[in-house]
Amino acid sequence: MGTQRLSILVGVVALSLCSLVAQGEFRLAQTTSEVSPLKLDEYGDLPTDDEAARLDLFADKLFKQRRLSGRIIAYCESQMERGLYLRRIHGIAKYLTYARGIEANRVAVVNGGYRERFATELWLIPEGSNPPVPVPKSPQPSVSISSAYKFDEECLDCATAVDLYLYGLDEGLQFYAEALRRYPAARGLLIVHPDHDVSIRRALNEAHKAKGLLIKNYGIDADRVIVRSARSRKDGTAVVEMWVVPSGATFPTTTSNKRLQRTRLSVCVGS
Q1: Alpha-carbon span 126 to 35, nearest angstrom
Q2: Among candidates 250, 231, 249, which has minimal Cα distance to 241?
Q3: Burial level of 145, CB count in 10 A (0-12/13-18/19+)?
Q4: How far does the chain reach from its first CA to its final CA, in angstroms?
Q5: Tens-level pLDDT at each residue, the chain (271 residues)
Q6: Among 27, 99, 111, 210, which one is least packed by beta carbons within 10 Å?
Q7: What is the pLDDT of residue 13?
Q8: Residue 29, CB half-sphere, CA atoms under 13 Å: how many?
Q9: Does the reported pTM lie above 0.85?
Q10: Which has the closest alpha carbon to 72: 50, 49, 51?
Q11: Nearest to 245 by CA among 224, 228, 217
């Protein structure tokens, strides 16, 4: 009988220990889950209003839960101009800060590398948790150092209800300036395309203002940046294209005409 009672007692103790261990593992798993980052949303190339609606929901979560921080992980596609991509993802952070009132130190922007299609992930990060690691799915495309490439372009007559991009000829110039600094022997080329709503005079003025900012704010030598005019594009959009032209590379051709040349002479080219 004594042996039987001892066996029963040992069994009860073992069962209790298993129960405690299981409860501990459950609490640990529960705690780990509570502090793990949560991917709230993921989307591709959306209309501005649709993207803004998703960002508003993201901001609402951050506003209501002060101990959370936000992380924007973006993935570029190989055919997308690098400057446009950077202006877009950093414009999201500015929208959350200036339009939605989220503190700048609670929102981080991460360049996740490349994927087949442009994508943006919105993450909620609990205090004390490790941030998510980007998962690129395409190799980084090689950039030729012997031929000119278009880094960015800014539309001069595109108006949206909500602006989610940094303006390419002002605050967005920081990325163009970085590209020029990366290749000190390269030159910058701003190509202006007018349309029916944006005159060549206005377009050239915008380009020369941008050149002035590159010189004054980012320390780019004046003789490294050239402004040229060209005919209207087939899509009828007025733009300023921003090119990087490595040393020894051929400048992209621009088709101009006498009217554009006469107008360019009347614009202050010393800015």
Answers
A1: 5
A2: 231
A3: middle
A4: 104
A5: 444 444 444 443 443 444 433 344 333 333 434 579 999 999 999 999 999 999 999 999 999 999 999 999 999 999 999 999 999 999 999 999 999 999 999 999 999 999 999 999 999 999 999 999 999 999 988 877 789 999 999 999 887 667 899 999 999 999 999 999 999 999 999 999 999 999 999 999 999 999 999 999 999 999 999 999 999 998 889 999 999 999 999 999 886 544 444 333 333 333 3
A6: 27
A7: 40
A8: 6
A9: no
A10: 51
A11: 224
Output the pLDDT for position 142.
Answer: 80
Separation between Cα atoms, residue 72 and residue 120, nearest integer Å: 7
- In three-state form (DSSP H/G/I as H, E/B as E, the rest C), the secondary structure along 91-113 is HHHHHHHHHCCCCHHHEEEEEEE
Q: Give residue for tokens 């190509």.
A: 191
**86 burial class (0-12, 13-18, 19+ CB within 10 angstroms)?**
buried
DSSP codes of every residue in 39-67? EEEEE-S--HHHHHHHHHHHHHHHHH-TT
Paired residues of 122 in beta bridges: 41, 72
